[in-house]
Amino acid sequence: MSSLIWSMLFMFIPCLWVCASLDLMKCWVYCSSSISCSLFVLSIAYFQQSMLSAVAVSSSMMKSSVGCLLISLTLWILILCFYCSAKPSSNINRFTGAFWLSGLFLILFFSVSKMSLFYFLFEVTAIPMVVLIIGWGYQPERMQASIYMLVYTVSASLPLLAFIVYSFWGFGSLSFFLHCPPHIISDSPWVFLVLVAFLVKLPVFGFHLWLPKAHSEAPVAGSMLLAGLLLKLGGFGLIRSIGWWGFSLRGPATEIIAVVSLCGGVITSLICLSQTDIKALVAYSSIGHMSLVIGGLFSATQTGWLSAGWIMLAHGLCSSGLFALVNNSYLQWGSRSVFLVKGGLSVLPSVSLWWFLLASANMACPPTLNLISEITLFCASVFLHCWFVFPAAMMVFLAAAYSLYLYTSTQHGVPATPHRSFIRPNDMMTASAMHWVPLNILALGCSSLG
To answer: Where in the sequence is the domain holding 84, given as residue range(s)?
Structure first.
């Protein structure tokens, strides 16, 4: 419980200081970086010790290894969201309030032990994101993107709500510490319907149409929040479903989900190579990376579960940094088209370096956490099915292809149009470093713990 109190304390400080000056915000970011990094290392160690360990701290709250890991990620990404958005705005108080609510809901979601609160927070986390898209989106299509997001997430979670109500009638309790009856667990079609709610939030191919629209219309901090944190709700929900509700991982439903997820990841990776919008490219790459989480979780091995957790952590840091760089390019050129965003290396070489480093991390180059997580995933995918190694390997190859395409198309060549204003290089370099450095530090920690 004390960790939750400190988490909320660290959330209040940027909400107050972001309304003051950028210099104060920088001071707080630098001071809190070491604290958040230590939280990351401790969470990784706790995560390695026991994937499913959990301790009840009250009647409605519990401390779990996965929850501690994702709470630390939440604190870190929120710091970076505030840092990248610390500029004058006409509605800065509402903007800050939306982020405060989102962080509050996320921390509570990763800590609750009641199914009713779990479902409520699972749904309500989408509201601040919708507010950010509608209030600070770029194009008139932001209303359509918000409707897509709400319709997909709410409609897909209705079977989950029915399952929770049915479990309450059967048990008389909504605690996660009580397992579901065997006749519910063994019903594969019912398991598939319940898991759809989490597959939409992950998202898995076929349920992903809302994600590129939401990313395209969201502001930079909204995209960082969505890719870095909100997509992890699906992975965390799957961990709770499999670990606490006892869903079987050996059945036709889970095999179909694994096949669709991995093959869909290959398809979305091919879509990335045909994108002309660099923000949409990064958004589609999230679908491919998060589909690997399915392969790790459904392998039913400790190695697979560790790789799934590491992939979620690595993706949260890497994709958030890429969206920050995409926004910087948009401020430079006034466009997100690969035909207009050219010559970043000649305009701002220091920022181009961070483009290269984060693109390399996105393709799982050493010594990043992405490499460690994908190596462990390959070892675990054999336990799921020997043929699943091939789509996973294809996704890794295509990830390298579209990451190189993203870097070369934006940083090389001759600028097509004169660049406009952009974020000061020191600010962008600081934000990029705070995304990239933890990927390498945590990779060393994970390799030593493994």
So the answer is: 2-173+202-449
Distance CA 188, CA 254 (A): 8
Q: Which residues pair with 363 in a beta bridge?
A: none
Q: How far apart are the first and last CA of the chain?
A: 28
Residue 113 maps to a domain: yes
Q: Confirm whether 382 is domain-assigned.
A: yes
> Can you list the alpha helix ranges (DSSP code H) found in 142-209?
142-156, 158-171, 182-185, 188-201
Q: Which amino acid appears at position 270 of this protein? A: L
Which amino acid is present at 103?
A: G
Per-residue pLDDT of the chain (450 residues; tens, 9 = 90+): 444 334 444 444 444 444 444 444 455 444 455 455 545 555 554 444 455 566 656 667 777 778 888 888 898 898 888 888 755 455 777 888 888 899 899 999 998 988 889 999 999 999 999 999 998 887 888 899 999 999 999 999 999 898 888 878 877 777 776 655 545 555 556 777 888 999 999 999 888 889 999 999 999 999 999 999 999 999 999 988 876 666 666 677 778 888 899 999 999 999 999 999 999 999 999 999 999 999 888 887 888 888 888 899 999 999 999 999 999 888 888 889 988 888 888 888 888 999 999 999 999 898 899 998 998 888 888 777 778 888 988 999 999 999 999 999 999 988 766 665 555 666 778 888 889 988 888 777 665 545
Give me the number of domains the chain comprises.
1
Q: Do strands 54-56 and 62-64 pair parallel, antiparallel, or not at all (unpaired)? A: antiparallel
Residues 6+ apart with CB under 8 A from 64: 52, 53, 54, 55, 110, 111
Structure tokens at 71: 């709470």
Sign of CA dihedral 211, 237, 9, 435: negative
Question: Quick one: tokens of 101?
Answer: 């609510």
Bridge partner residues of 55 (DSSP): 63
Q: Can you give the length of the chain in residues?
A: 450
Alpha-carbon distance 271 to 281, whole Å? 8
Q: Is residue 243 part of a domain?
A: yes
CB-neighbour burial class of residue 49 (10 A; exposed 0-12, middle 13-18, buried 19+): exposed
The two counts, helices (H) then strands (E), for the chain are 21, 2
Distance (Å, whole) CA 154 – CA 149: 8
Spatial separation of the C-alpha atoms in residues 144 and 214, rounded to whole Å: 9
154 located within any domain: yes
